[in-house]
Amino acid sequence: MKFFDSSKRVGAGLGLGALLATASSAVSALPVPWQLNMTKGVTKTSQDVYQIHMWAFYVCCVIGLIVFGAMIIAMFKFRKSKGAVAAKWSHNTKAEIVWTVVPILILVVLAAPATGVMINMAHTADSQMTVKITGYQWKWRYEYLNWGEKAYHVNFISKLDGESDRTRQLKSGLDPWAVKSEGAQTYLLDVDHPLVLPTDTKVRFVVTGDDVIHAWWVPELGWKQDAIPGIINDDWTEIHDPGVYRGQCAELCGQDHGFMPIVVKAVPKEEFMKWLDTQEAALAPPPAAAATAATPAAEPTKG
Amino acid sequence: MATHAAHHDDHHDDHDHKPHGFFNRWVCSTNHKDIGTLYLIFSFTMACIGAAFSGVIRTELAQPGLQFVQPYFFNQMTTLHALVMIFGAIMPGFVGLANWMIPLQVGAPDMALPRMNNWSFWILPFAFTLLLSTLFMPGGAPAGGWTLYPPLSIQGGASVAFVVFAVHLMGISSIMGAINIIATILNMRAPGMDLLKMPLFVWTWLITAFLLIAVMPVLAGAVTMLLTDKYFGTSFFNAAGGGDPVMFQHIFWFFGHPEVYIMILPAFGIVSEIIPTFARKPLFGYQAMVYATASIAFLSFIVWGHHMFTVGMPLGGELFFMYSTMLIAIPTGVKVFNWVSTMWKGSMTFETPMLWAISFVILFTIGGFSGLMLALVPADFQYQDTYFVVAHFHYVLVTGALFSIIAAIYYWWPKWSGRMYNETWAKVHFWWTMVFVNVLFFPQHFLGLAGMPRRIPDYNVAFSDWNLISTIGAYGMFLTPIMMFVILYSSLKSGEKAKAVSWEGAHGLEWTVPSPAPFHTFATPPIIHAADLAHGDVTH
């Protein structure tokens, strides 16, 4: 029946609210089956974003309860078959004012913290390191530009791992559930060369595209940025928890848009410095060719 | 036609005389009822074609791994699915309803410009033949999304030119239709049909028509620049040549946002007709509803950036678009509260049109909630280009716009055809749709929140459960156009004959003419009695 259908929706919304509140208390690096809610993530930004998301959701639940509740009651009480006689009134200016002003106030309450988070996300200054991200059809390039005052030239392409790539071929007959990395189901969420980042360090990113518009997105970090040819966007992140975080391209970029994932490996600062210096050292040419050192434009793809 | 002139003179006082011959009646039609019927048949056909494309999409997405189609073809399916549904199903559906009902509701004999009306319709089959023919060309159909963002869209082959020309033709059709609607409403209302006595369906279409005239030329400009970038060496959107890919997005969405309001305002009008009829109570807050519609239309021009929150706009721009987008929720909410207040203390019965209208209010509101969440920029960074957005717009467009069109068809069917459809079977159609539309789209909220991007043909195994559920919902939905067709077709053969006032609580000029409505109505303007009108009492 109609009212039962609506009340189911209200009940489901409440149940969902409870579920959503609990489902994301664990930081998971991979999406989980039957996942209902957004991740809380591993940065302050991602956690602020999660809060805004949940508060907006709760506001919608309350408004939904009131509106759908009134409709259900009305459908029950004011049926012709129950002998209800229609009222004659059809306007009320006071009501119109109240249900215009009260929602405006609710929106201000939602907009204020959102504004604060946006201002915070816009402050890319005072970072320790800048990483340049370039989107290609259909892979990413990562370039470590500096650590503090010291320049770096580590530069590599990161693309879909081979096992995922073989499995995803049309009618491959291979099993996506068999694609694993250290026991985790990483089909289409694994790459050959992850982006290694230090924890507890403000890292700035400059993001661009080489051919068409792509978008760089790791849900655990809490932000997404379009990678646009001819434009350099900038962002920052500071990861608190070491771990492996996975994301995907989030702007249609052609046939393999679904097949150019992102993997971020966050490690403690000391471990990161060791890794970075090792990569940088591996770039140094043999002493005899020192005079013709590779420039960034020559695109060494070690890593 | 000269050979039929004598015929016409003999029968000019027979209001039910239709032109002789299929070609004369349908291809050369200048009758708002027949042209309305043509639009509705076209819309239904295109909805089935668009559904077929979504069938390919949902079939491939039922399981992880690629089982059926190559990624490039999958992208053609997503692109065409949207273009066909938006420009072929939803918009022509509303225009068909406008053609049928606006002259009847204002007491006019026909649209202001009947021959232009004919052309507005007949452009559409040509436009869609052009578009769909790209499936059979080398390079295939457009595959860069219905939003056609460059540089990707320009990487297409011959389909780029064809989609641009098809869009131009559709735009011309819409602009001419909008001109006709405004001219009819402003100039041809029967004496006594003051603007603030018009049915809300007429108001919402009047405002929608202004939106169409304002923004369709902008879309034409945007796609023309794509054409010249590809074929004539311009660099509007090519950074290497000094242009800006993001400029396309600004221009496109300056069209695109009002476009989505073009697709929902007539729905608001329809629901505002149906609920008062079956609640046997006048629409609550008629004037507030008119002003709210006008506010939504005005605000729709200043929110376009919310489709582009991740492109890298300056902070001030993002803040502006966040605030303006949140603001547009206010008049929309006012409308929902007014519909509920119409139901409150009414005397309701729940015939099929009322079921569709009530489900519109509930499910469109759910779509509005996800829209409010999307308006919050920091949260949008996690939702943008994921299935959360896909869920949002399918709730507002399918359970919103499409449900209102179905409601309107069931509501005005007795007036058009002179027959009642079978109420039991129509209720089966309604409940079947209610279940499966939610099975199809609600899980997509979860997929988006869990991290699944949109426009991908394959996904990590963690997303497989909700995707399978969604596909089951899709397969349930594919039966529903068949159900509706059978119900309506069989009513023509064996439905109970309908009365002029086909629903007990119905008010409005359309119910003062016989069912089925004669071919020509209001050849002389009607005398308007306040009791006939839904809003005859100006103290509302």
Strand proportion of chain B: under 5%
What's the multimeric state?
heterodimer
Q: Biggest interface and its residues per chain?
A: A-B, 103 and 100 residues
Radius of gyration of chain B: 23 Å
Q: Structural class, from secondary structure content of chain B?
A: mainly alpha
Number of helices of chain B: 18
Please provide the count of β strands of chain A: 13
Mean pLDDT of chain B: 96
- Largest sheet descriptor of chain A: 6 strands, mixed
Number of helices of chain A: 5
Q: Characterize the main sheet of chain B.
A: none
Order of helices and strands of chain A: HHHEEEEHEEEEEEEEEH
Q: Helix fraction of chain B?
A: 55-70%
- Proportion of residues in β-strands of chain A: 15-25%
Shape of chain B: globular
Global shape of chain A: elongated
Round the mean pLDDT of chain A to the nearest integer and report it: 90
Number of strands of chain B: 0
Describe the structure.
- The complex is a heterodimer of chains A (303) and B (540).
- Chain A has helices at 2-23, 44-77, 93-122, 162-167, 269-283, and strands spanning 129-136, 139-147, 150-151, 155-158, 180-181, 184-185, 195-198, 203-209, 214-218, 223-227, 233-237, 243-247, 262-267.
- With 303 residues, chain A is of the alpha+beta class.
- In chain A, 35% of the residues lie in helices and 21% in strands.
- In chain A, helix 1 (2-23) runs antiparallel to helix 2 and helix 2 runs antiparallel to helix 3 (93-122).
- In chain A, strands 1, 2, 3, 4, 8 and 11 form a six-stranded mixed beta sheet that branches. In chain A, strands 7-13-12 form a three-stranded mixed beta sheet, covered by helices on one side.
- In chain B, helix 5 packs antiparallel against helix 6, helix 9 (265-279) runs parallel beside helix 12 and helix 9 crosses helix 15.
- Chain B starts with a helix and ends in a 46-residue tail after the last helix.
- The longest helix of chain B is centred in the N-terminal third of the chain and has 36 residues, at 71-106.
- Chain B has 18 helices and no strands.
- Chain B is an all-alpha fold and 540 residues long.
